[in-house]
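Retro notes (design track)

What went well: tokenization of the new backbones is finally stable.
What didn't: we kept losing track of which sequence belonged to which structure.
Fix going forward: every design gets posted as structure first, then sequence, in one message. First example under the new rule, 230 residues:
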């Protein structure tokens, strides 16, 4: 099935304390976005990838990508205010013949290729899949005043990662459903589940971190030194 990569990379690095787009932050000599794409390159997913960028940064992203991947055609387009908006706008740019879309955060440069592949196979089989890892911690559900409400059974709790991989028709329907409801989520698999459709969980790896805070940058530098890059 024709498979396309969609990379939400339109976030600004506010929680990292940087002025510009988070995807362009330097990780040991390369931007986070370039590291993430290099990571995915062996799967043959870079050609025709759709990259969502913050407003006014299109040119800088285009220069960065044409330098790093001179012969690889990609689409670079402006994202939206929330991640969900960026993904919805990106879905509209997929090739008409694309059947599977792999949505992967620019902020996760250490994803394991076998989990990406497993997510594609699961999406082909059941329509929707997300990479995730079983929670090793007990997770507390609290109220707005920091009082414990309840403690869900840890055996059934997973921590969400990306990629999240879908049949295109399934994820487009889920975004349309969320837009009708005025629902905003922090991932795409949840939008599919809200429609009642199944979502398969595929086991990821603890090193597939989302770089969010300055502490994550130190962790990323360590992983690169250990040879976890590309
Ligand atoms: O902010 P957070 O790290 O959770 O964002 C996850 C991913 O979504 C990042 O790769 C970020 O660039 C992207 N994003 C986006 N559009 C937004 C906000 C975040 O594409 N408006």
């Amino acid at each position: 099935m024709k498979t396309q990569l969609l990379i939400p990379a339109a976030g600004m690095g506010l929680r990292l304390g940087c002025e510009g787009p988070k995807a362009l932050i330097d990780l040991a000599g390369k931007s986070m976005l370039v590291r993430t794409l290099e990571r995915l390159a062996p799967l043959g997913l870079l050609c025709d990838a759709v990259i969502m960028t913050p407003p006014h940064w299109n040119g800088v992203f285009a220069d960065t990508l044409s330098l790093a991947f001179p012969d690889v055609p990609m689409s670079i387009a402006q994202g939206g205010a929330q991640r969900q908006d960026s993904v919805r706008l990106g879905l509209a740019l997929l090739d008409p013949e694309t059947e599977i879309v792999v949505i992967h955060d620019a902020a996760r440069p250490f994803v394991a290729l076998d989990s990406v592949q497993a997510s594609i196979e699961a999406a082909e089989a059941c329509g929707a899949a997300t990479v995730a890892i079983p929670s090793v911690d007990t997770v507390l559900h609290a109220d707005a005043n920091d009082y414990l409400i309840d403690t869900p059974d840890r055996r059934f709790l997973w921590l969400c990662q990306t990629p999240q991989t879908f049949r295109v028709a399934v994820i487009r329907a889920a975004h349309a459903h969320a837009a009708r409801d005025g629902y905003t989520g922090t991932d795409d698999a949840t939008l599919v589940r809200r429609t009642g459709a199944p979502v398969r969980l595929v086991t990821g790896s603890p090193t597939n971190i989302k770089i969010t805070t300055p502490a994550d940058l130190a962790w990323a530098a360590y992983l690169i030194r250990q040879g976890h890059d590309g």
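Added context from the reviewer: The mean pLDDT is 96.
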